[in-house]
Design goal:
Layout (H helix, E strand, L loop, with lengths): L8 E6 L20 E8 L3 E2 L5 E2 L3 E4 L2 E4 L5 E4 L5 E2 L8 E5 L3 E4 L4
Antiparallel strand pairs: 1-2, 1-9, 2-7, 3-4, 5-6, 7-10, 8-9
């Protein structure tokens, strides 16, 4: 089965195990500490109410523009990923573009 995120969202595998509740929800111990996730799929561009297009974040890496893509490791704000019902054991969740804080880059 393939899961495709809606426009404006990415599908991630949550990598941080700390703070997992009995219900499978991930709550970081420190509310200001970003969580890590592996990108599984990226949704399409989403139009905003103001008429702009909201695209996946673009980062500058070695003077090149890099858009988030599957297999990237990202950092995102705590309490923003929505777990997929029935997929808690796989640690998969949806995360909106707006809460992505950074991209892990190995040079």
């Amino acid at each position: 089965m393939t899961i495709i995120p809606a426009p404006g969202f990415i599908l991630i595998e949550i990598l941080d195990e700390k703070g997992k509740t009995d219900q499978g929800i991930y709550v970081p111990q420190d509310q200001s500490e970003p969580m890590r996730g592996k990108v599984l799929a990226v949704g399409e561009v989403r139009p905003t109410e103001e008429g702009y297009s909201l695209i996946a974040p673009i980062f500058k890496v070695n003077n090149k523009s890099v858009m988030i893509k599957p297999d990237d490791i990202i950092f995102f704000k705590p309490h923003t990923a929505q777990n997929l019902p029935g997929y808690a054991e796989k640690k998969q969740a949806f995360c909106p573009f707006e809460v992505i804080m950074g991209l892990e880059v190995h040079e």
